[in-house]
Every structure is written in C-alpha cells, then in structure tokens.
Design goal:
Blueprint: H1 3-9, E1 15-16, E2 19-20, E3 23-24, H2 32-42, H3 55-65, E4 71-75, H4 82-93, H5 99-105, H6 109-122, E5 127-131, E6 139-145, H7 148-175, E7 182-184, H8 186-212, E8 226-232, E9 245-251, H9 253-257, H10 264-273, H11 275-298, E10 300-302, H12 307-334, H13 341-348, E11 359-361, H14 363-381, H15 387-402, H16 404-445, E12 475-478, E13 481-484, H17 485-488, E14 492-495, E15 506-508, H18 514-518, E16 519-521, E17 542-545, E18 553-556, H19 560-568, H20 577-587, E19 589-594, E20 597-602, E21 606-611, E22 617-620, E23 624-627, H21 629-634, E24 636-639, E25 643-645, H22 648-670, E26 680-681, H23 683-692, E27 699-701, H24 704-721, E28 725-726, H25 728-738, H26 745-753, E29 762-764, E30 766-771, E31 779-789, E32 801-803, H27 804-807, H28 813-835, E33 846-853, H29 865-877, E34 880-882, E35 885-887, E36 890-892, E37 897-899, H30 904-921, E38 928-932, H31 936-942, H32 950-953, E39 955-959, H33 962-970, H34 977-981, H35 983-1003
Parallel strand pairs: 1-39, 4-21, 4-24, 6-20, 7-10, 15-18, 18-21, 26-28, 32-33, 35-38, 38-39
Antiparallel strand pairs: 2-3, 5-6, 5-14, 7-11, 8-9, 12-13, 16-17, 19-20, 22-23, 25-27, 29-34, 30-31, 31-33, 36-37
Helix pairs in contact: 2-23, 3-6, 5-6, 7-14, 7-16, 8-11, 8-12, 8-13, 14-15, 15-16, 22-24, 28-29, 28-35, 33-35
C-alpha cells in the first residue's frame, strides 16, 4: 500500500460515525431468521395476551388491586398498551376472560386476579338504605346492600321499628294520659287542682242533669229540681279511694216526694222517674268521677313536697271549693234564685278558669318510655340482617336516653295541647246544649205545636265530640327545624337496580363534577317562611346517585389526570371533594357533602385508570405546579414502560404486532377474506420494520399503536401502487414519496445563482446551519457574524450583541430564542477571559453583529443556537470555519453541551444534496454533517429506509459538546480519524487559545 493510500485511510469516510467518546454504537442487525421462525409458530393455535411486552405491568396491577387499597393508575406514553392492560383486567374480573386462560399465559397473575375478583364481587354495592341520624341530623347514615332479599327484609324491619317508636312517642299521652306523672311547684299545683276540681264538679252536675233527663222535658222549665253535690273526704285521701263518700241533694225533691209539688214537672218527677230509687245510682257515678279526679291528682307531685303535704293541699282546695263556690250556689238554690239545672250550670261555669300550670315530667315516666324503646330495639335488632342497621337502631334509643329533655318537653306540650282541646270541645258541647234548650223554650213561649210539626231528622253524629282529639305531634330537632318524629323516623331507599346476573360489573367514567360523579341532592332550606311540614328530613334529600355508585369496578380510561384535576380544582365550588375522596381512599367510606348535609356511603370499590402523564402533578399556567401528594400516597402509580430489553422474546412481540396490523388492514379495508387479497411482507422488509422499533442495541420501543398505524399506512400505499407485497424497495419508495418534491428547492436555487460555490473554502464568522420545516423546502442556514472593536460611545451604552434580522424584521421568535442561547454562551466565554485577570470589559466599546444571510424568513428554533454561537466565536477569534461543514444542535450555555434536535435525517439530506451538486461541478470535496449525539438512535434507525444514500455521500459526526464542534469545524478542509477521536481535548485547547485572542482584540478597544 502506497503512502498516498495510507494517508487517505487517516481521514473519515462517508457514513455515520458510530463512535461517541470512545464507545462504538453497533448497527441494528438483521432479524429475518426470527421473522421466519415466527411465521412457522403462528400457524399453531396458542393462547396469548391481547397486548405484548407489558406482562410486568399487568402483574404489578394485579398485586396492587389485591391489597387493602385497590386503587391504581397506569402511567406511560400513548400507544404502549396501557388501555389494553386495563381492559384485559376488566374482562378477567367481569368473567369475559376465564382465570384458566390467565393461568396459561401469565401464571403469577392468576391467583392474584382470582382474589381481586372475589373482593370485587363483595364490592357490588347497588342499593343504599338511608336512615336518619338523630345525634347529628346533618350527617346522614346510608347502609349499602348487595342482595335484594337482604335489603327487602331490612327495609321491613326498619319500617316496623320506626313505626313502633314513632307511634309510641306520638300517642303516648293519648293512651297513657292518666299514668303520666308530672311535677309542679306548689303555687302551680294549687291553681291546677282548683281548675280540676271545678271541671270535675261541672262534669258531675252535667251527668246528673243528663241522668235526670230534665233536658228532654217539653213543658215549662222555669221550676225544676236542681241537683247539688257534696263530698266527704276520708282521712287518707290517696289511700282507699272507695271510702270517698258523695252526697247528692236535689232541691225540690221533698216537695215531689211528699205530694207537695206545685208544678207539673215536680209531680212527674215522683210518678214517672222515681227519683228516690235513682239517687243511689247518681251518687255512685258521682263518686266514680271524684275517684278519677283524685287518681289524676295522685300522678302529680309537688316539687320538694312529701306525699302527705300534697294530700293536705288537695283537702284544703276541696274544702275551699265547697265553701266558697258550691256553698253560695246552694244558698241561691234554697232561696229560689236558681230554679233549674241549666241556670245552675250557667252560674258555676265562670267561677274558676281553666289552668294547666307549669309542669315537668317525672323521671319515672321518662324511664318507662325509654324502657319501652329498649324493648323495641331488642326485638328488631334480633331480626335485622345488616350490622349497620342494628347499630342505627341502637343509636336511636341512645339518642332518647341522652336527650331526655326532648321527651319531657314534647310530653308537656302534648298534655297542654290535649287539655286545651278538651276544654274547647266541652265548651262547644255546652254551647250546643244551651242553644237547643233556648230554642225549645222559645218554641214553647211562641205556642208552636210540636206534635203537629214533622221533626227534622238530625244526622247521626259519627263520633262523640268529647272523644274526638286533635293530637299534637311529637317533634324532634332535625336539620334546620323541629320535625314530627313520624316523618323523621322513616327510611329511604336509593340506588340502582340490582344486576340480573351475579358477578362483577364495571363503570367507565369520563366527565367529572359533583353532580355527575356522585349524584344529585336537595339541600334543606333554612328559611323561616317554610313551615315544618314543608321541610324534608336530610336523609330524604337524595334525588339520585351518580355513576360512581353504579358498580364495584370503576374505570378511568386515559383520563385519570382529568379526574384528579376535576375534584381538586375550584375547591370552594366543589365543597371539599378532594378531602371527601381522600377520606374514601383511606377508609372505604365516601362522604358526599351537599350544602350543610353530608352523606356517608360505605362503598369500597376497585378504581383503576390510565393516563399518558403523571396525573398527580397539575400545572396551572407556566410557573405554578401543584403536586397532589395526598392522592399520590393513596393511589398506586404503576409506570408502564415505553421501552423493553431488546431480546428475542420482546422482538417476537413486535413481530406479532406487525402481522396483526396486516390482518387488521385486510379485514377492515379489503374484507373479502380470500387468500389472494391478503397483503404480505417479505422477511427482509419485516426485519427493516422491526428495526424501526429498536431504540438501540439494548432497548426496544413499545410504542405499538404508532407502529401498527405505520404498517396500515404501508398497506394502503402498497394497494395504491397495485402491489400486494411490502418489500424493502417499497419501503424506500414510500419514504421518498413522503418528502415534498420541492424539498431541495432553496438548495438547488443556490446552485443556480452560484451562491454556495462562490464562498471561500473557509471564512471567519461564516457557519452553515440547517433548517427543515414541515412541508416546506429545506434551507442552508448561512449565518454570518462580525466583530467590531472600538465603537465610539461617550456614555458607554454600546449594544454589544446585535441580530440585524430583528431590526429588519426578517426573523421570528423561535430564531430569537436560538440567538439568545448563543449569546449567553459567548458571554460566558468572554467572561472566562475576563476571569483570568487579563481583561476588563467595563468602559470598553465593542460589538458582535449577526446576520442570517439569504434566509429571508429567518432560522427557526433553538436548534440553530450551536451554529450561531460558533459563528460569533469564529468572528471573535478570527478562526475560519470550512464551508463543507454543516452543523445543527441546541446549545446549553451553562454546560457547553449540545442538546437534542428534531428532523435529524432530513437535515442530513441538505449536505447530501450539496455533495451531489459539488460532484456535478467536478469538485472533490467531502461534506460533513455535525449532529447531536443524542439523536444517534433516530438517525441510525432512519437510514435503514434511506432512499437517497445519505451514508454513501455524507460524513455524519455525532457531537456532545461545543468544544468538539469548535475543533471539527475549524480543523482543516478534511477531518481525520484522529481529529474526531480527540475532538474534545483539541477543542478545549483551541478554546483556550481563543480566550487569548479575545483578550488581544479587546485590548485594542478604546477606553
């Protein structure tokens, strides 16, 4: 081998240099043999998962769901199989995929999913029984049921318990009025006993009047026998009440008995009614009524007074009544001033007014009521099915045990109400009797012959007015009002219909707010204008439950972040939905707050979802980021990888996706099912497509949705070309057709005007960047920078950096961003020279002007920042950059590193086109393409399909730092292997020399 040939071997040849900092990047191997092996195995029937290479994600999900906190979210890139994993778990849990099939394809997950399925079946809470919370009315008790029979039984049990308790409390005074013991002050007791004595006395006289049947006499009522009553009290008033002696005296009786009766009615008194024989019966009835009076008195105690003291007071009041009320009336009767029973009653009625007095209910009476409630509780808790229902019935009894004052206040109010009604009804009856008597007297005086008149039949009364009662309600404080205990103590059933089949059901949720997620609720109105009857007990304010309660398995498909954001945003409007849901995740009990009322649902569920990004990191605007730590701690985040280890098993999954996409296209687009209509793919083309899924020698991409879409696109392209086989040639042709026909328009126009070729081989400050826009011609970004020292400015306000295109409005904001990154880097380099103590920038005038020559629309994007920075530094150091260098990359000023860009392959086509044009001009000049090393995987994968022969025409050099690029752009017309391998070291040395040059230039600037 000659010297010239050896010299040539020292320089880099066209192709991608697959070495980065001493590490060689291997090429993607051909996998045609694996393709053939897969096609042979595909003929065999075997069970397989509907997704590929995500077995670990499924296993991790199954483990999470089998724990005490079965809440999980799958997070990962779009199109890697998250939704398919989720759907598969749903099908297993709902019985659409058997556990035997799971056992065959992923044995470790089968027992876990079996356990999850059993748990989820128990989570099927479809119906809720709402019962009142007497201790805290604004917190409603809801009891969940899964079995309709159990719910039916407990509804009947709860209703029976409510009826027993409610009816006893509502009607206790009606059926136990005589047994209710009350306590009064002495003054109130005296007033009340006077009222009772007077009322009893009037009742007895009315009964005597009725027994004597004097009210039915049709002759003169001016002079009739008048009955009076006297009592003789035993020594022990509340001892043997049968010893009470009653004396009845009838004024006019002696005259009738001795035949001295003057009036006709007095004569008939003896002849027709035998008053003497009737007297014993009258006295017995009067005694019974008096005994009843004393019995009522016996149930009333005087506050801080013994029993014998009460007896003394009663005797005093009886004697006082007989002396001061009955006595004067008797005298008037003897004197003939009162001639009939009707006038007697008229005189007595207004003597003493009705008085009920302030009273308290005895502790013994309240104790009897609570004992009765306890008996109800024991009876119904013994038959209740749900433990929570038993606890509720116990809480009802406990409430009345602790709130004895509620019982006492209601009984006192009800007794007063009943007594007022008794007085009112008796008054109505007396008024009616008086009206009837006066009518008869008027008819007599007018001489009407009643015998000739046809009596008008009166309708028979349906009930005795004295027996008619308008019982008051027993009311309890509940919500914002006092409500009838009968309305409060009721139950309310709410929920969805029970499933017709046994097993797990699932609900897929999409839109989220307080109403659609949890349901609709009415709030109790706190309005004084609303009466008690219009108020609704809190447990009855459920209108309907939302979809969250519909099943035991809740799915958020690709929308979990939307759900988290919905229940955490607008905190005030959502009334603490975040806290409600966090409590639920921790306890399994969901508290739904609506207005002032909270509903607690025992609703354990399995919650799973997926999202393309972290759902617990919510960004508002561009600065503030809220991290939902509470949810992150309770909902398991399962990271679904978008990369897998590049091994044979993983590649087998990608091959499977490829062939399934082919079948899907044939089925959906062709649909004939005939073998001749199928689209095939050659083994070599399949291997090339498989290589597209490889990110590196060790990593395989799992973005299978994108991969499937690409296969279907190729199938459609093949059909449009009239072929039914996807070959390597078809793949390259498809890539070429995707590039716009005007892609090289600006590059070719440079040749026409000889613009590129008129440039010197090298020139300081002149750097070639690359611009590629979607569906637009590619451009050579010719960037020029000039250093101007010593600019006069007395105020030292020189603008040191200037992008001319900004002032001429020939660029856009993206170019400005790249320019700013470059300016920051150059400023740091200049500061490096100053840091050595050789240079003082203050008070010096200088300027670097930059211009995008010929790029009338500017250079877009930060990927031009490396080329711009290189142009500025080249101008500062007067270091020429060779025109056959083309560079792209995003500079990081703080670290001097070169960052990732987009469209690497398409940018590489620009120097390839330049190389072709150079060859046509007869110039043997190499073309060098400098690109970020982080884009190596993109470029090496894209050149597999390269229809233009990029690797045969351009030397593609991966770079990682500004120093490497600086050396490779300025090291000579051709780059040697040694230059590339030592680019970092040589670039650092050259940058050090540049700092010295910058110092010398600035040293010449005017102070």
């Amino acid at each position: 081998m000659g010297l010239e040939e050896k010299t040539k071997e020292q320089f880099l040849k066209p192709g991608i240099v697959k070495e980065i900092q001493g590490v060689t990047i291997p090429a993607f191997p051909d996998h045609s043999s694996e393709i053939k092996e897969y096609r042979k195995e595909a003929k065999k029937e075997n069970l397989q998962l509907p997704f590929v290479n995500q077995d670990k994600a499924l296993l991790q999900l199954a483990r999470t769901l089998s724990t005490s906190y079965p809440y999980a979210v799958l997070i990962g890139e779009s199109g890697i199989g998250k939704s398919m994993v989720l759907d598969y778990v749903v099908k297993v849990l709902t019985g659409k995929v058997s556990l035997d099939e799971v056992e065959k394809v992923i044995p470790e997950a089968a027992p876990l999913l079996k356990k999850v399925k059993e748990n989820t079946s128990r989570f099927e809470h479809r119906k809720y029984l709402s019962v009142p919370n007497l201790q805290d009315p604004f917190n409603v008790n809801t009891i969940a049921y899964t079995e309709p029979e159990e719910l039916e039984e407990d509804i009947n049990t709860a209703l029976s318990f409510c009826n027993e308790v409610g009816n006893m409390l509502k009607h206790y005074t009606r059926f136990n009025q005589d047994d209710i013991r009350v306590v009064m002050k002495e003054e109130d007791f005296r007033k009340a006993i006077r009222s009772k004595i007077h009322s009893t006395y009037i009742d007895i006289l009315e009964q005597l009047y009725k027994n004597m049947k004097l009210e039915k006499k049709k002759d003169s009522m001016e002079s009739e026998p008048v009955a009076l009553l006297y009592f003789e009290m035993p020594e022990k008033l509340f001892g043997d009440r049968k010893k009470i002696k009653t004396r009845v005296e009838i004024i006019g009786e002696e005259r009738a008995r001795k035949g001295k009766a003057k009036t006709a009615s007095q004569k008939r008194l003896r002849q027709e009614y035998g008053l003497v024989m009737y007297k014993k019966e009258i006295m017995q009835e009067a005694s019974d009524m008096m005994i009843e009076l004393l019995y009522k008195v016996s149930t009333t105690d005087i506050h801080h007074k013994p029993k014998n003291e009460k007896e003394r007071i009663v005797k005093e009041e009886l004697e006082d009544y007989m002396e001061n009320v009955a006595g004067p009336i008797y005298s008037q009767c003897i004197k003939g001033k009162i001639r009939n029973q009707q006038l007697l009653l008229a005189k007595l009625l207004p003597k003493v007014r009705s008085y009920h007095g302030e009273r308290r209910i005895s502790g013994n009476t309240i104790g009897e009521i609570i004992d009765a409630l306890d008996d109800f509780k024991k009876e119904y808790t013994s038959v209740a099915r749900h433990e929570q229902l038993k606890s509720w019935m116990e809480s009802v009894v406990d409430y009345f045990k602790s709130e004895r004052k509620v019982i006492e206040d209601n009984l006192v109010e009800m007794l007063k109400f009943d007594e007022r009604e008794n007085v009112r009804l008796r008054s109505e009856l007396r008024k009616k009797r008086q009206e009837e008597a006066l009518k008869r007297l008027a008819d007599k005086l007018l001489g009407k012959d009643e015998k000739k008149q046809k009596p008008t039949p009166e309708p028979k009364p349906k009930e005795n007015p004295l027996e008619r009662r308008y019982w008051s309600d027993f009311k309890v404080p509940h919500g914002n009002a006092r409500i009838d205990v009968g309305r409060v103590l009721t139950v309310f059933e709410q929920g969805y219909e029970f499933p017709t089949r046994k097993g797990v059901t699932w609900t897929k949720l999409g839109d989220f707010d307080a109403e659609t997620l949890f349901g609709q609720f009415n709030t109790i109105e706190d309005d004084d204008d609303i009466n008690d009857d219009a108020r609704i007990p809190p447990h009855h304010t459920i209108m309907r439950l939302g979809p969250f309660f519909k099943s035991g398995l809740v799915i958020f498909n690709d929308s979990f972040k939307k759900f988290i954001k919905a229940i955490t945003s607008d905190y005030t409007d959502n009334q603490g939905m975040k806290e409600q849901f966090l409590e639920y995740l921790q306890t399994g009990v969901l508290t739904v707050i609506n207005g002032d009322i909270s509903y607690r649902f025992d609703a354990p569920k399995i919650i799973i979802g997926c999202d393309n990004e972290d759902p617990f990191e919510i960004t508002d605007g561009t600065i503030f980021v809220r991290d939902e730590v509470g949810f992150r701690g309770r909902i398991k985040s399962i990271s679904v990888p978008d990369l897998a280890t590049n091994n044979k098993e993983a590649r087998k999954g990608s091959i499977r996706v490829l062939y399934e996409a082919l079948e899907k296209y044939v089925k959906n687009s062709i649909g004939t099912g005939k073998p001749g209509d199928a689209i095939t793919v050659t083994d070599q083309a399949a291997s090339m497509l498989l290589q597209r899924t490889m990110m590196s020698e060790r990593l395989l991409s799992l973005e299978y949705r994108q991969f499937s879409t690409k296969i279907e696109e190729l199938c459609a392209y093949a059909m449009s070309k009239g072929v039914k086989a996807i070959t390597p040639e078809l793949l390259r042709e498809h890539i070429k057709d995707q590039i716009p026909p005007y892609f090289f328009y600006y590059v070719d126009r440079e040749q026409e005007f000889d613009g590129y070729f008129s440039l010197p081989k090298s020139q300081p400050g002149h750097v070639h960047g690359l611009s590629v826009f979607h569906n637009a011609p590619a451009e050579i970004g010719k960037i020029k920078s000039y250093f101007k020292p010593g600019i006069e400015d007395n105020n030292h306000n020189t603008k040191h950096f200037e992008l001319i295109d900004i002032e001429s409005q020939m660029t856009d904001e993206t170019a400005i961003k790249g320019y700013e990154l470059a300016k920051d880097l150059v400023t740091k380099i200049i500061a490096g020279a100053q840091g050595k103590g050789k240079l003082v920038l203050a008070g010096r005038d200088w300027q670097i002007k930059t211009h995008f020559d010929g790029n009338y629309e500017g250079i877009g994007g930060p990927s031009a920042s490396l080329a711009i920075a290189m142009s500025m530094v080249s101008a500062l150091a007067d270091e020429p950059v060779y025109r056959n260098r083309f560079v792209t990359g995003t500079i990081e000023p703080s670290s001097f590193k070169v960052g990732e860009i987009g469209g690497t392959y398409y940018k590489g086509l620009i120097p390839m086109r330049i190389k072709e044009l150079l060859d046509t001009k007869g110039e043997d000049e190499d073309a060098y393409f400098l690109f970020p090393a982080t884009n190596m995987k993109d470029l090496t994968r894209d050149v597999i399909f390269d229809p233009f022969g990029l690797e045969q025409k351009v030397v593609c050099l991966p770079i990682t730092t500004f120093q490497q690029a600086y050396h490779l752009l300025t090291c000579g017309p051709r780059i040697s292997i040694d230059d590339f391998k030592n680019a970092q070291k040589k670039g650092e040395e050259k940058l050090e020399q540049t700092l010295q040059k910058i110092y010398e230039k600035f040293n010449g600037c005017k102070d």
